[in-house]
Amino acid sequence: MSAGEPSALTRSAAETEALGARLAGRLRPGDVVLLTGEMGTGKTTFVRGALRALGVTRPVTSPTFTLGQRYDEATPPASHLDLHRLAGLDDEDPALLEDYVGPGRIAFVEWPRVAGGRLDVLGRIAARVELEHAGADARRITCT
Fold first, then answer.
1. CATH of 8-143 given 1.25.40.80, 3.40.50.1110, 1.10.260.40, 3.40.50.300
2. Its pTM surpasses 0.85
3. Average pLDDT, whole number, for the chain?
């Protein structure tokens, strides 16, 4: 999957992971991928596929109850953040994200709207991935 590619329809977790893996193949250190979609649309499943393609073999779970998870064993190192629990970034310590974003790692960020106008603190936005329910187990995934 790449920016500008028409949206894709997936019908299983494996197909959603495969699209994440395709996107991972074009990412470079310092890239940030923003993921939007309602709860249960497969954001973490998409990230799991990308992280598998980057060499992660351990479990990949949603960081909903923590700010993020680091995968230093990935090549290049990667992070998976979930901003859902934050009210915004304006009142947060600027160092909050330092362990998760930066020029030496790829960052996957769920719920980026929480950042508001502060997306610049995340780094270079390489892709915006939107996931939508498309009936039953199907998902429509668009990458821009």
1. 3.40.50.300
2. yes
3. 89
